Every structure is written in structure tokens, then in C-alpha cells.
């Protein structure tokens, strides 16, 4: 199989504090998501790169967990994942230090322990996790079977 290429774009105009920007995906799923200093570092209206990265991780994890469970013979009814990303300001500037995944699933035929084990293994292997884990100080997952 050949490499799969995905595309996204972003713009920024002005300085960091008073400038503004936007991000879009080639598919159109995300179109001109507005970004400002306050939407990134405070509580302003708009999006930010960290939120988009958390969404990508939650989506990747949900898909990968569903796949891992299905391959083990337990097709999930639904997997929902919320990712909480920590952006920390240290002496050398800002750094993404942690990500926590809260997964909840409806999976016939397994118990809580099996679901939690599958989630822990998936945290190590989903493609976005594989990218992020080496740079993070901490990555955690909690898994709740419904």
C-alpha cells in the first residue's frame, strides 16, 4: 500500500498578541477555524492547535480501539473518547506535556477489565499516540464500559 497523504492549511496575520489566523482541512471538515492569541492561551472565542490535536487523538484512539476490540471478536456498539491535552508554560516556553484520554464504550461480550486492558494497549499503538508519546511527560487513559 502506498503512503496516504492528508492536507491541512493555516494562516496567520500580524503579531502573536493582536494577530489572527485560521486553519482548514482539505476535506472541508474544518473550514477557516478562527484562532487568536486569546483563543490559544486564554479563554477567547475560537480554536487553537492544541484543541485540534486533542480532537485528532480522540478520533484516532476511538477508531483504533474499535478496531482492536473487533479483531478480538467484540464489535463495539459505540466508543466515545474525550482527550484532555495539557499545554504548560515552563522556563523555555510552552510545551505540550500531557494527554489524558477518557474512553467510554458499549461493547457486548466483554467485562470492564478487558475493556480497560484494550484501551491501555490502544493508547500505545494508535497512530496519533505513536507520534505523541515520545514527546509527552505523561499519557494516561481511563476506560469505562457502559
Summarize the structure.
This protein is α+β, with helices and mostly antiparallel strands. It is 33% helix and 35% strand.
Written account of the structure:
With about 150 residues, the chain is α+β, with helices and mostly antiparallel strands. Helix content is about 35%, strand content about 35%. Helix 2 (about 50-70) packs across helix 3 (about 110-125). It is globular and about 55 Å long.
Mean pLDDT value? 97
Give the helix proportion (percent range).
Answer: 25-40%
Strand-and-helix sequence, N→C?
EEEHHEEHHE
Strand runs, count: 6
Unreliable spans are: none
Task: Please identify the oligomeric state.
Answer: single chain
Amount of beta strand:
25-35%
Rg measurement, Å: 17 Å
Q: What class, by secondary structure content?
A: alpha+beta
How many helices does DSSP assign?
A: 4
Biggest β-sheet, characterized? 3 strands, antiparallel
Cross-sheet strand order for the largest sheet:
1-2-3
Rounded to the nearest angstrom, the distance between the terminal CA atoms is 37 Å
The general outline is globular
